[in-house]
Amino acid sequence: MRTYAMWCNQKLALAGNTDNITFNEKAMCQKFQDGTFIATMLQILESGLQEKEVKIRGIKWTPKKLKVFWNENMRICWEFMRVNKITLGGVNFISIMGGRSMKTVLALVWRWIQRYDMATGVNELLQWVNDHTVATYTVDNFTNNWSDGMAFVELYSELFSCVETTDVESWRGHSAEERMTWAFEQFTNKLNIPEMLMIEDLQTTNIDASQVQTYVATIRTEWEKWHAEWLEEEQKRKDAENNEDAKKQFESEMHETEGDNLFNFGISAFSNQKSETDTIITEIINEITDKLSEAEPPVDYTVFTQEAKDKFRERTDGFDDAIEKFSKAKDEYDQVTHTDVTEKKDKCDEKTDEVNKYRDEFDVRIETTLEEYYQTDRADKFYNECTDHMDTVFQEGGDLMQTIITETTESIESATREEERERIRDEGNKRVEEWIVIFDPLKDEFTQAEDMYPDSHVDDKHKCQDKRDEIDDTVEQFKEMMRIKIEEAMTADHDNDEVFEDELLQLYHETTVHNNETVGGEEVLPLEQLLQNPTKCKERLDEILEKVKGVWGDSESLRQKVHDQVDAVFNANGYECKNGTDCCAECKSGHK
């Protein structure tokens, strides 16, 4: 993928177009999706082949998300390729419009490479290689013959023997990595070809021949241009040797040519660096966030941001290289006298501004991306604090709940009246409702943590809701445990006392307030009934008072009050009771 992406980027750069493909499969697929990039590439490639500007008519250059325009763009491009004899071999645009078929995208680019850089075929390319290497060195394939790097050294040495001498034999004592590093750099410096191959691509048992062919074919295409220009320059140099005016003209033209070359080098440097920027940003962000995860609070986030920006500057020196090339190109144009190159100098300034603007935008992107991580880091740290707090509250709250359950159930078990047990149960439930309140601040903390997470962190927000649900579930479990324990205590067998509070109160009421009352139209004389059978009344009274003793209210005080009132009634009605209702039965027989 990288080789094909860089091949496209190199063609764009040579055309002065700073658009590029990044080394990301998803991004590359999306780049081809609406047909506009395909149309741009076809215009550039066909213009280079025909040596005149070629335009594709009917393309919707701003199709947005309208797939009807995507489809029309694709139809136009496929028809253009058919007319211009690009063999597609089953490559269809439906898959490309889906934005997910990397295989189809690469197949399309390979068809372009075959048409515009390898039109004469692989065998002819292999023959060209052997024609430009030493007689004792034969290249039979585009795979393992290139893995030691000597083929690249030999090829460079032969191609540029007209301008420099390379000590090929000395390179036999170097490693394959050193050979390839040097050769790739030379091809970049001389022909403005990016390093389409990585050393590791050739250090495997399964070398992709099409990648090597693409790189070598690009070398051939650009070298043929360079060599033709060099021959023309040499002829002009000779023609100007004995003519001062022609010599000045030639020198001015050489300054313009060098300016053009430097400008193109600047475009390539800019484009190549752009294609790697997303990967570099991702690496830096990962490094910074790894360090951030190990940082102890309090965290100074500005330090991490500055470190990320510094790393970005260090790893994107291609931008500095591009600016330097544009500056040198402008210096060359300043020495041009045979024609007006003001527009070219202005373009150097424009591209320098474009590079700086692009790089500055990535500074902002770093800040924005890291700020989201910082926001997440703050939220994570607070979430962890909330989780620790929840564990503490659960422990302490669980202990308190267990105490409430134990105290309530024990009190119920010791109570001897149903009404008392119900009162204890209700008081226990009330304590539970008061206990539940301690979890509300904890739930609020997780709500705050949820609000701290960026909107894009849906899973993190969900985990905060999960914690609130866990709190509610735990509370419900405690309440259910309380309900079960109380129900067991309430339904257990009890030695219940028969209590007669109502009867006692009624008796007390009748002896202290009423002498008689009317029930159902007939007068009832409770006092008279009481006097007619005082012994029975006394026994009933003692029975009631004994059963409520120590259970219902201040029973001793109530007992005394009732006895005093009853004694007063007895004495007022002629009983000779020395001890009131507590006297003996014989004493009561003397009723007058």
Give a brief description.
This protein is mostly helical and 592 residues long. It has helices spanning 2-14, 25-32, 36-50, 67-83, 93-97, 102-116, 122-131, 150-159, 168-171, 176-191, 209-239, 244-294, 301-315, 317-334, 342-414, 418-436, 440-452, 458-491, 501-512, 526-532, 534-548, 555-572, and strands spanning 517-519, 522-524.
Protein architecture, described:
The chain has 22 helices and two strands. The chain has a two-stranded antiparallel ribbon. 28% of the residues are buried. The C terminus is likely disordered.
- Helical content band: over 70%
Query: How much strand?
Result: under 5%
Tally of strands: 2
Largest beta-sheet characterization? 2 strands, antiparallel
Name the poorly predicted regions.
Answer: 512-516, 550-555, 575-592
Topology pattern, helix = H, strand = E: HHHHHHHHHHHHHHHHHHHEEHHH
Overall 3D form: elongated
The gyration radius over C-alpha positions equals 50 Å
> Count of helical segments?
22
Largest sheet: spatial strand order = 1-2
Structural class of the secondary structure composition? mainly alpha
How far the N terminus sits from the C terminus, by CA atoms, comes to: 127 Å
Q: Mean of residue pLDDT?
A: 85
Q: What features would you highlight for this structure?
A:
592 residues, mainly alpha, Actin-binding Protein, T-fimbrin, domain 1, two-stranded antiparallel ribbon, 2 strands, 71% helix, 1% strand, elongated, disordered C terminus
What's the SSE blueprint?
Blueprint: H1 2-14, H2 25-32, H3 36-50, H4 67-83, H5 93-97, H6 102-116, H7 122-131, H8 150-159, H9 168-171, H10 176-191, H11 209-239, H12 244-294, H13 301-315, H14 317-334, H15 342-414, H16 418-436, H17 440-452, H18 458-491, H19 501-512, E1 517-519, E2 522-524, H20 526-532, H21 534-548, H22 555-572
Antiparallel strand pairs: 1-2
